[in-house]
């Protein structure tokens, strides 16, 4: 969830910033005396939508390091045996997955069992694990987690997520302006411009939340692929063991912390919450690996 959460947060902030600046500067005018020029609005929406997504992708690795206070392990430095083993395992999996430039490997202090991979491309990536994961999981399970994260990198998941988010952003920008324009027609003419501007932001946030349902659905699909990729790199039993130990760790944390487990978003206790889950149910993931 760390990887997805950071990406979505940065994307929303970048998108809102672009929208506010372009609106205040009058860039991308699409309202004509006869109404909305939908062709101009769609072109504007695509530029803004994909710009927000790709800016988020470009700064994803830097943002993750800063927000999570990740300590990057330098392979040339005097690392502890545990740290060196961590780097070597990630690099071994990366080479076996066909990655040419090795991912950065980092650790951040947190009691939660968590790991994530991020970065703008396969050859500019970061794999980070929490101190809690290293303390609570055995070596086989840790290998499964690392292989899973390397599989995300090898699959180019951050790039495909960016493309999906760009499409969603385009619809969010487009629909929010159409809805804001329609609503502003019901107020006094001298207030219409202000109401239109405010409603653009309001509708963009609302439609952005709804759009995240599609993004989360794609994220759940990617997790199954990363599980299979992790099984290919580390072995099916180690991947299954990793998921089983993550499941066990869920019972050791509070309900609030549950929502942030890296490989476990259990689909929620209702279908509504399940729509916003970035990860499938753990039992289903384990079952699919066992049947593979």
From TrEMBL:
GO terms for molecular function: metalloendopeptidase activity; zinc ion binding. The chain crosses the membrane at residues 7-31, 37-59, 167-187, 193-218. Zn(2+) binds at residues 148, 152, 223. Its EC number is 3.4.24.-. Keywords: Cell membrane, Hydrolase, Membrane, Metal-binding, Metalloprotease, Protease, Transmembrane, Transmembrane helix, Zinc. Binds 1 zinc ion per subunit. The active site is at residue 149. GO terms for biological process: proteolysis. GO terms for cellular component: plasma membrane. Residues 82-292 form the Peptidase M48 domain. Its cofactor is Zn(2+). It is a multi-pass membrane protein. It comes from the Bacteria. Its main location: membrane. This is Protease HtpX homolog. It comes from Desulfuribacillus stibiiarsenatis. The gene is htpX.
